[in-house]
Input
Amino acid sequence: MYEVSHKKWNGAYVNDEARKKNEELQKEFHASNSVNQSFVKVFGKEHNGYVRGVGQGVTPSQMCGLSSRHSTSVADAKIAKMQSEIDVLTTQVAEVEALKAKVAEFDQMKEQYAFIMANIKGNHVRQSP
Output
């Protein structure tokens, strides 16, 4: 995280000190295989109320609080949008079911009409002689 947060868009370090600290951090990490121990050796003990490795003045509430509140509001907005889409789809399903019922009713009426027409033709044929 330190390396990513201390490089420019072109991959160059923001300053020479950041490059040196990252090199030192990499050496310590390979020696101890522990990120936390490496940070303590390179940067010293952690100070309460600040987030290590992201620059001066950044507090935990700025890193976690805002992002979690932002994430929550984004999630709430997505949930509201999905609920709206569910409501629309539920309405559409009800409309499709109503249309299916109408089609079935029309099919039944069509069969009855065909039966009546066949009987009328049959009666005309019998009455002719």
